Amino acid sequence: MTAEIQDIFQFVLKQAPFSELPESAASYFSKHIQVVYLSKSNQQDWLQDSQPNLYLIRSGIIDLISAKDEVIGRMSEGDYFGYPSLLTGDAIQNHIEVQKDGLVYILKEHDFDFLRREYKPFEQYFVRAHANRLLASRYKQQSETWSERKISELMTKEAVTITPDASIRDAARLISEHRVSSIMITEHDRLVGVVTDRDLRNRVLAQDRDPCASLAEIMTKKPKHIFENNRVFSALHLMLKHNIHHLPVLNEAYKPLGMLTSTDLLRQQKSDPVQLIGRIYKAQNLLSIKNYAQEIPDLLRQFSYHIEDISLIGKLLSGLTDALTSRLIYLYQQQHGAAPCRFAWICFGSQAREEQTLHSDQDNGLLLPDNIDESAREYFAKLGAFVCEQLNECGIRSCPGNIMASNSECRGTVAQWSERFSRWILSPTPKAMLNCKIYFDMRFIDGASDLYAALSQSLANISKNELFYAAMATDINANSVPIGIFQQFKLEKDKGKHKYLDLKKRGVAIINDVVRLYALKAGVARANTLERLEALNKGALLAKSDINNLKDCWRFLTQLRLKTQINREGLPGNCINPESLSSLEKHQLKEAFYLVKQAQQASAFKFARGSL
Amino acid sequence: MDVQILTFIIVGLSFALYIGIAIWARAGSTNEFYVAGGGVPPVANGMATAADWMSAASFISMAGIISFAGYDGGVYLMGWTGGYVLLALCLAPYLRKFGKFTVPDFIGDRYYSQVARVVAILCAIFICFTYIAGQMRGVGVVFSRFLEVDIETGVYIGMVIVFFYAVLGGMKGITYTQVAQYCVLVFAYLVPAIFISLMMTGHLLPQTGFGATLADGSGTYLLDKLDGLSTELGFAQYTEGSKSMIDVFAITAALMVGTAGLPHVIVRFFTVPRVKDTRISAAWTLVFIAIVYTTAPAVASFARVNMIDTINGKDGSGTVYEEAPQWVKNWERTGLIIFNDKNGDGKMQYSAGKIDDPASANEVKIDRDIMVLANPEIANLPAWVIALVAAGGIAAALSTTAGLLLVISTSVSHDLLKRTIKPDINDKQELLAARLAAMVAIGISAYFGINPPGFVASVVAFAFGLAAASFFPAIIMGIFSKRMNKEGAIAGMVTGIGFTAAYIIYFKFVSPELNAPANWLFGISPEGIGIIGMLVNFIVAAVVMKVTAETPEEVKLMVEGIRNPKGSSAAHAH
Amino acid sequence: MEWLSRSLAKWRYKHLLFSQAELVVLDLELTGLDPKQHEIVSAGWLPIKNMRIEVKDAQHYLNKEVQSLEQSPVYHGIDSAQLASGYSLKTLLLALQQAIHGNVLVGHNVQMDWAFLKTAFQQFNLNVKPALMLDTMQIDKRRVLKQGYPLAQDALTLNACRMRYGLPLHQLHDALGDALATAELLLAQSQAICLGGKCKIADLT
Predict the structure, then answer these.
(1) In C, which residues are within 8 Å of A41 by CB distance?
(2) Which of B26, B39, B569 sits opposite A429 (nearest CB)?
(3) Domain of C151: which CATH number?
(4) pLDDT class for B568, splitting at 50, 70, 90?
(5) Nearest-CA residue of chain C relative to A106?
(6) What CATH superfamily is the domain A273-463?
(7) How far is B488 from B484, CA to CA, in rounded Å?
(8) A606 and B418 in contact by Cβ < 8 A?
(9) Which of C198, C194, C10, C26 is nearest to C97 (CA)?
(10) What value does the mean pLDDT take over residues C9-32?
(11) Is the pLDDT of residue B565 over 60?
């Protein structure tokens, strides 16, 4: 008779993959193990070829070391090791180094095989873990998520091309012959225009144009395009931003390779935010705008189940907010007459960074020309008030800090805005630093883009101040990453005695802050953190490996953060209780925090001369 | 309780305080209250800067030097105070406007040249090394006495503690930790001074006690007695200098202008967010420095009188060695007091001259650096006061050393490695390089701490001299002369620091036996030669400038931008 | 001559390497502290071979004849259904005899458990003698005292001892759970005292 030991059973039950399996699996596991105590003095006795076992750490900290003496990973409670050779039958190559003595459960090969046969998810879990480790060791350059895939993998149709001197009829024939919805017009192998079947309808039939006329008359010249090596999400983003459905794909030499359509993307993502954005851009009255806005939360929820790259959610939400804003500005002008002078509507903070969530509030402002008169100011005051109020009714809450175009401080001329920024830069008080963190993430939404360009040029000049960088770096380092010297989580407690980790404030925000600092220094005029990192790749400020690390961390933390918005246990927003994570996630989280901490320290070091 | 245990307790408590404050400040600095309050108030910033400013040299050694050299020692006092004023009023505002965080960056940008920047970085590293070496000596003295080990071991212990504090502790730069350090330091300095002042002159304030009559009823002034004792024992009169006027002037000036180039202090002016607050906090700093500096001469004189009285006995015939007070024995163990009974009478006699020189009657060699630390012991003050002084000495050394170590490590790993030699290293490697650099720096300075080329204050004086000869002219010309070009600045810095370093090395290491006024250039000692180095720098720069290409137009505009009081930043010139 | 062979066995065991020894770690659940008056509710034990705790050989026996349990069936968290699935005290003791006779018996405060077992074995006329007994509580008591610390109250409970070696907090469940917790503690102790494998049993007594 074998008795079941509750202590072991309860522990095993909480670990992946047993948490997903019938209890009988955990029960079998907990009845068939040996318990051993690992320490520095006996570390060489484990992971022996003669007896391949599965090891599960109950307590202590153990480093897994490769044959080349590189640390593969630091493992602690709930982590497994030893499974690769059980799966593959290959010789064991790794060994371990005990960092902190502790208990380890050993399952023999025979028993592992039993569980593997009986429970498919058990096997899958370890196969995946094995694959992940292999992937990780080759530096995760290729992510599996579809939005990260390259365009070339997704594009199905070959390029259908024609020269501009061909007739419209030729083009129509070619389109129907190839059963496509658009055609590319090329000259000397270079793309010069695009014609879609909709163009044939709207620009030819509806206008009674002669089908024998030259194609050049009706084509869209200098169309938006994308390169085969770009990622799918860039394509999606372009389509969302410009409300287009066809995107020519080119190779490095600008030679057309094919056409990517929104249907191609839809096939991948099943849900249809592109269309919603399109509908918003066409809304004719306030009521329909609000109706569309109500669809956003539902759509997002569906969408978030289908995609794995979480940065896309933020892009989508920001895209939707951009669309709402643009359309509201349009409607206001329809009702109250066109604006008396040029203007630019700009946004800040999370909307600018394109990492909005459903809980994000408005951060926006108006940029006006320097020679504006009082009556025009009056007009924009009303415009600002209208748009902000309507956005609020569309579910994008008013900003508690009053960073909104309805606030007169946030409606300024280029000179006024520059003056505001330079005040913060020259007197970097903690409050000014807080403002900088919001306002320096800035993006153009609607209106005259040259005004925006003038402001960003002016900002680029006044922000070139190393004392300001130093103040920012010091400010970044006042925030601490919740990881202790011994690699343990430092949990925060709220009044209800929940213990949690704040993923936004102590993770994502720090990465954003660090990246913003580098971007300012390098003069990168982007607001999105991943794009900023991408642009930083060109300079030498930040090493390639650091850039990749920060990107990975940012994605991982954002992903977890979104998870907290879906299922939470009464914790404050963006917070997570690490106990609710799988051991793998816990491990990754620690790793991510460690890297964030390193980036934070390094920024203090480079910009504030180590005034840590 | 005996002194050693008390020292452990009090030093331990002071460390606990620093660490506690560091943790508190980290947790507190992100909350809304802090943000709304606009950060650190100027008074606190003033104290923190004072802590940065006052090193082990100020704390331990300055009074010691004054005590032994009398009037001549005053040059340090004047030089350092003047230097601070010069820096606060004439340089910091301009540098701030230029928007560069470090002096090498200023020089690199102002002289539009990587070479100039690298030269400046190398100068900065060199200066910091010299400065730290002086600090290590000071820390070593403290530890050797209170752990009752020899000075060498004391330096090693200090080395480890400083390394952990500066590099691993992450406490540097937390303003309130430095405020606490200043408080510990000033308390530790004033308490014994007040005690002794009361005992000897009946005055509460050491500053007034210094000029008062003795409390023993004799009615003689303290300084008169000291003058009498000094001449009696064959020293120069205490209130009269033995240094020539030109040397005094040179040392004071070198210390003053050298201050401008000390990288860790300039940074303090930049970390205050508002320009207005910078001025207020600079004024506070001056007040806080003055509290210690005005006490120093008093401490020096009290200590001197007490020491001579105790060693030579009230009647001047010497104290019997076997009956010598405990402090003599204690310090003998560290090797910082040596007794050589030349006449074999079993009594100690102290007078001018060297103890191994048979012609001199002097039998006791006393290291000047022990004066402040030994002072409470000599005056028979309670054990806790003695322990407090140890904590103060460590506080003074830690705050300054940590700042300097960071300058060295960032200069090596960021300025030299990342930005110049190997731009593709990643953050981890950069941080590692920084720690290694700090370790090496401590190691090298420990060597100089054990084999010092002079007393703490004089070693530090060399650092100032080097800074005076290299940075000061480059900064001044950078701000006030539109025409100074890179060739001139680089040539000036290289010759300035080269000349000064060579002079010091020659007289201190190569031929120390020649180190006498007769052999000096213009009668200026190695401590003061920095000022000649500075002049050399100016002259070489001016000459080279004349024969090389003119400064580019945009740099001229930039320089005008800094000096233009209206424009709040250089960028506004666009 | 029995004592001679026993003491010989004892000597042999004492000089055996810990890694080669077979040990049985036992915990009893009792209704009270007095062997004359109180009873054994359950017994759990498991072997340590080659410094590995063999969970698959763990044994857990519930004594269904416990008198006091009938009055208060929820005592010890055991309900009547579970009790029905228990064994007679004799079965329990016979199984235990198999496991511990002539072996090394380990327990946390093992003397207490042994006092109960001795009484019970005598009652059924069973001759059971472990070759050697190791007490994890005594081991820790000696270690703490040797380091010169005063012993606080509660400093020698199973969890308090485990904490000293950084072992995870153990939920007090039943006899077998406690036996496992004790076994883990012994492994940690042997590691701390003499690096485990090179440890002789004598080093632990």
Answers:
(1) 191, 195-197
(2) B39
(3) 3.30.420.10
(4) very low
(5) C52
(6) Beta Polymerase, domain 2 (3.30.460.10)
(7) 7
(8) yes
(9) C26
(10) 82
(11) no
Q: What is the pLDDT of residues B278-292, one digit of tens each?
A: 788 888 888 888 888
pLDDT band at B222 (very low <50, low <70, confident <90, very high): low
Q: Select from C49, C55, C165, C184 the residue whose CB has the most chain A CBs within 10 Å, as the one to mutate to test that interface.
A: C55
For residues B336 and B442, state if they share a domain. no
| Residue in chain C nearest A5 by alpha carbon | C177
CATH number of A149-236+247-264: 3.10.580.10
**DSSP secondary structure letters along B378-435:** HTT--HHHHHHHHHHHHHHHHHHHHHHHHHHHHIIIIIIIIIII-TT--HHHHHHHHH
Mean pLDDT over residues C63-74, rounded? 65
More confident call, B543 vs B96 = B543
List chain A residues with CB under 8 Å of B574: 461
Using an 8 Å CB-CB cutoff, list chain B residues near A426.
275, 568-569
- The DSSP letter of residue A356 is -
**Taking CA atoms, what residue in A is nearest to B168?**
A612
Whether the predicted pLDDT of A394 surpasses 80: yes
Sheet holding A220-221, edge to edge: A161-162, A182-187, A190-196, A220-221
pLDDT tens digits, residue range C25-37? 999 988 888 888 8
* Nearest residue in A to B438, CA atom: A610
Phi, psi of C193 (to 5 degrees): -80, -50
CATH number of the domain within which B523 lies? 1.20.1730.10
Q: Taking residues B294-314, report their average pLDDT.
A: 77
Chain C touched by A60 (CB under 8 Å): yes
pLDDT of residue A565: 60
**Hey, are the CB atoms on C53 and A36 less than 8 Å from each other?**
yes
Determine the residue among C27, C53, C96 to mutate to test chain A binding: the one whose Cβ has the most chain A Cβ atoms within 10 Å: C53
Render pLDDT for A531-549 as a digit per residue (tens, 0 to 9).
Answer: 888 888 887 788 888 888 8
Contact A597, A483 (CB under 8 A): yes
Q: Please state which of the four CATH numbers 3.60.21, 2.30.30, 1.20.120, 3.30.460 is assigned to the domain occupying A471-607.
A: 1.20.120
* Tally of domains within chain C: 1
Q: What is the pLDDT of residue C87?
A: 87
A59 touches chain C (CB under 8 A): yes
For residue A609, give the nearest of B53, B475, B414 by alpha carbon: B414
Domain region containing C198: 2-204
A6-137 CATH: 2.60.120.10
Closest B-chain CA to A424: B273
For residue A251, is pLDDT > 60? Answer: yes
Say whether A474 and B271 touch across the interface (CB within 8 A). yes
* B75 contact partners, CB below 8 Å, separation of at least 6: B243, B248, B251, B252, B255
Count of structural domains within chain B? 2
Q: Are A431 and B428 within 8 A, CB to CB?
A: no
Quick check: B383 and B2 in contact, CB under 8 A? yes
Domain boundary among B378, B406, B422: B378
In this prediction, residue B454 has a pLDDT band, given cuts at 50, 70 and 90, of low
- Contact (Cβ atoms closer than 8 angstroms) between residue A343 and residue A368: yes
Residue B87: domain span: 3-27+52-307+381-565
Please, which residues have CB within 8 angstroms of residue B522's CB and are 6 or more apart in sequence? B246, B250, B532
Say if residue B330 is in the same domain as residue B228.
no
Cβ distance C58 to A2 less than 8 Å, yes or no, reads yes
End-to-end CA distance of chain A: 61
Chain A residues lying within 8 Å of B102, measured CB to CB? 466, 609
Q: Stretch B195-203: mean pLDDT, rounded?
A: 76
**Neighbours of A (≥3 Cβ pairs closer than 8 A)?**
B, C
